[in-house]
Amino acid sequence: MLRDRYCIVHKLGFGSYSTTWLGKDVSKGGRYVAIKVMTADSSVASQEAKVLRHLADKTSFDAHRKAKPQGVDSTTVPSIWDEFTISGPNGTHQCIITTPARMTVAEAQDASYTRLFQPRVARALAAQLIHGVAFMHTKGLVHADLHLGNVLFKLTEDSRRLPIDKLYDKFGTPELETVRIIGNGGAQLLPEGFPTHIVVPSWFGIKSEDVKLHESSVFLTDFGESFMPSSEQRYHSSTPRILRPPETRFLPEEPLSYPADIWTLACSIWTTLGQRSLFELFSPTDEYVTKEQVDALGMLPSPWWERWTARDDYFDDRGELLDTTCRRMTLEDRFEHSIQAPRRAVGMEMVGEQEMVALLDMLRSMLAFIPEERPTAASLLTCDWMTKWALPDLREVERAGL
């Protein structure tokens, strides 16, 4: 029991800077909570808590705004219900009590052979991603590490109502594994501060195609890289290389800002709607990432094109592929390859012609090479694809009240 209030129920997962546990808050009618325990004395821990507090503050909006802009939804960021510290053999750990989740969007796809969400679910997920980024931006924050591994499905209402014994019946009891250090001389004593056992994370998720619309409520997470452009200049990106916006490479002297999130948001929406990433690379290098971006979106802006010394390995002066055995994969080609063809193969509804035009218009604007030419997240809320296709499906999720 932590703080004489939180009972540990199961292990949800772990990352570089924290381990997250499913717990029960005995002071709040036994509601389930996520207990995020940070690594000892971690600077990321204080940053995460700081961002969550800022997001929860109803008065802390961007300097140009007096209140939350109309239409921006704050439910796509987690609530912070409590925070405290605990002491252990490795130091002091900050603990954050927040919204419990069942799986990441990426994990749902990884669990599936098709890697596809049902069309209405995919639209609702994409709409929530836009809402989440728009809300963060109105708060003056850049997420700076947006990808589907940092988007979590909320624990379903059915699961939240289960008593602990029924939860164990459904998902299994915690599984412990003994920690051993094996050297040349066999088993060795554990160093001071090492745990004698570890708990295997439980799987509360399901395959992507099995996610129902009413249970597709998600929120953004992992704000350890988030920052305020108004008070901090950030010149590097910790986002996976294939998702990094091109300015991280071609404008290294310019600080990153909100448009960097718009680029990664477009890449995340693409993967949510389809089976494959927009840019597919098994072992990406900076040069090949740029090659993929040019292949899909056209030539770089002139100063960047001239500065890109490796372009002669891939393209002629007109931006045409030198390798004549390969066909250029434009954005439209990738849409067919990543979204339409996989849906067709499994008998799933494909994107209609009118929706495809609206969707590609939105994505192409978000993937503008020049950061200042990308739309704001708030403006995306009123674009054709959102208003005619995505938001109607999101309203069904909201009516479910997850």
From TrEMBL:
<dbReference type="GO" id="GO:0043484">
    <property type="term" value="P:regulation of RNA splicing"/>
</dbReference>
<dbReference type="GO" id="GO:0005634">
    <property type="term" value="C:nucleus"/>
</dbReference>
<dbReference type="InterPro" id="IPR017441">
    <property type="entry name" value="Protein_kinase_ATP_BS"/>
</dbReference>
<keyword id="KW-0723">Serine/threonine-protein kinase</keyword>
<dbReference type="Pfam" id="PF00069">
    <property type="entry name" value="Pkinase"/>
</dbReference>
<keyword id="KW-0808">Transferase</keyword>
<feature type="binding site">
    <location>
        <position position="36"/>
    </location>
    <ligand>
        <name>ATP</name>
    </ligand>
</feature>
<dbReference type="InterPro" id="IPR011009">
    <property type="entry name" value="Kinase-like_dom_sf"/>
</dbReference>
<feature type="domain" description="Protein kinase">
    <location>
        <begin position="6"/>
        <end position="386"/>
    </location>
</feature>
<dbReference type="InterPro" id="IPR051175">
    <property type="entry name" value="CLK_kinases"/>
</dbReference>
<dbReference type="GO" id="GO:0005524">
    <property type="term" value="F:ATP binding"/>
</dbReference>
<keyword id="KW-0067">ATP-binding</keyword>
<dbReference type="GO" id="GO:0004674">
    <property type="term" value="F:protein serine/threonine kinase activity"/>
</dbReference>
<keyword id="KW-0418">Kinase</keyword>
<dbReference type="InterPro" id="IPR000719">
    <property type="entry name" value="Prot_kinase_dom"/>
</dbReference>
<protein>
    <submittedName>
        <fullName>SRPK2 bound unphosphorylated</fullName>
    </submittedName>
</protein>
<keyword id="KW-0547">Nucleotide-binding</keyword>
